[in-house]
Amino acid sequence: MYWDRSIITDRTIIANKPDIVVVDRSERVAVIVDITVPHDENLVKAEKDKEVKYLDLAHEIVDMWDVDSAIIVPIVVSVNGLIAKSLDQHLRRLALGSWVKGLMQKAVLLGTARIVRRFLALES
């Protein structure tokens, strides 16, 4: 498992630092996980952007690391706690249950509240 680490590749790939990379040697699968917290109206766009962004890296990982496939799993929760319909499918790919959604939403909402409180403290 790698997190917050650049992946060294043979070819130059701009998007080479996903949030998490998990390599399952027994299943010969690499999972690229990238987490983002966009504004509400950018929820679906952010998910598609993450999938496209790491496509080259996924191909390069398959070639370099002797795995059969590399799966890109975008985890997207908006700043107000909204989640896309596809999040359940992405959590299943990570072998996580739906109970994680509530914890992710809570963490994002608490982070948003902390940012707003800090901003309001600067204004007064």
Describe this structure in words.
Strand 2 and strand 3 (29-36) form a beta hairpin. The protein has helices at 43-53, 55-64, 87-93, 99-123; strands spanning 2-3, 20-24, 29-36, 69-76. With 124 residues, the chain is an alpha+beta fold. The model has no long low-confidence stretch (mean pLDDT 92). The relative contact order is 0.15.
Describe the oligomeric state of these chains in a short phrase. single chain
H/E topology pattern: EEEHHEHH
Low-confidence runs (pLDDT<50, min 5 residues)?
Answer: none
Largest sheet geometry: 4 strands, mixed
User: Strand share of the residues?
Assistant: 15-25%
Whole-Å distance between the termini? Answer: 44 Å
Question: What tags apply to this protein structure?
Answer:
single chain, about 120 residues, alpha+beta, four-stranded mixed sheet, 4 helices, globular
Topology summary:
Elements: E1 2-3, E2 20-24, E3 29-36, H1 43-53, H2 55-64, E4 69-76, H3 87-93, H4 99-123
Outline:
The chain is α+β, with helices and mostly antiparallel strands and 124 residues long. Helix content is 43%, strand content 19%.
